[in-house]
Amino acid sequence: MNQSNPEVQTEEITLENLPQIWKKLRTELTDYISNPEVWTGLLFTLLKVILIYIAARVIIKIANKALEHMLRERSRGPIQFDQRRTKTIGKLAANIITYVVNFIMILMILSQFNVNLGPVLAGAGVVGLAIGFGAQSLVKDVITGFFIIFEDQFAVGDVIQTGTYKGTVEEIGLRVTRIKSWTGEVHIIPNGTINQVTNFSINNSLAVIDVNVAYETDIDTALKVLKEVANAFYEHSVDMVKAPDVLGVHMIGTSDITLRLTAECKPNTHFAVMRQLNAEIKKAFESHGIDIPYPRLVTYHRTEKAES
């Protein structure tokens, strides 16, 4: 038994009916644009998108404030945690919260435009798998960043050196680490390239000061003055952790004698202590008449004539 299918009426486009087709399309477009329901729906969609964006920003701000409050309360509790590590984990957690909330916000905005999220999520999974195989350096950066934080190799605020880069750690992410040098440059280093790290902020630093005096100087007097200056400086210094040690004569040179003293200081403060101590030693030596050797040039003039 044969069943007849309804025929689909299609209008053939020719040069003769092209004006009518264009007029029909223009009329339909005009009706669509002038339809108030279309504009009402678009307005509601835009309002929803704006509300979603504002809600995401508010959630991120509230979450960051709650995280800061939690870390602050934890630092005041009976069980004390390392402030360096707490600060680093706090910044990392804030970055993760921002990424997660922004990702959910993008999905919700796409859903407002009737985008099917199933294929989008499936495609994201495939892309993530492809990135995992193709971008091995990215995976290496993430894994290295995790172990840097987990093992507490360095933290935000530490002064470190890795390779040729030395400076203060501003941020530790899962992929990159930001280091600011003392001259102001910011170095962005992938975590996967960090092989060796020297951390200058964990233990106290040692200031080593060498002072040269002339051979004519009385060594006992010079050492006594040196010790008095170092002890007086220690009394008002906030960077020294204990009194300096005057070690005595360190070296006898061809034109001078080197005296050495050491001072244990707080991390990364030994350079400032050395500069200040050098200035105080110079003033004390001048007041006690102790000469600091400097290059001298002696010129001999021949007065006798050469014999013929």
TrEMBL record:
Pfam family, one: MS_channel_2nd
MF annotations from Gene Ontology: mechanosensitive monoatomic ion channel activity
Broad class of where this protein is predominantly found: membrane
UniProt keyword annotation of GTP-binding present: no
Lineage top rank: taxon: Bacteria
Record keyword Cell membrane present: yes
Keywords: Cell membrane, Membrane, Transmembrane, Transmembrane helix
Cellular localisation: Cell membrane
GO cellular component: plasma membrane
Recorded topology in the membrane: Multi-pass membrane protein
InterPro entries: LSM_dom_sf, MS_channel_1st, MS_channel_C, MscS_beta-dom_sf, MscS_channel_2nd, MscS_channel_C_sf, MscS_channel_TM-2, YbiO_bact
Function recorded in the entry: May play a role in resistance to osmotic downshock.
Protein family membership: Belongs to the MscS (TC 1.A.23) family.
Name of this protein: Mechanosensitive ion channel protein MscS
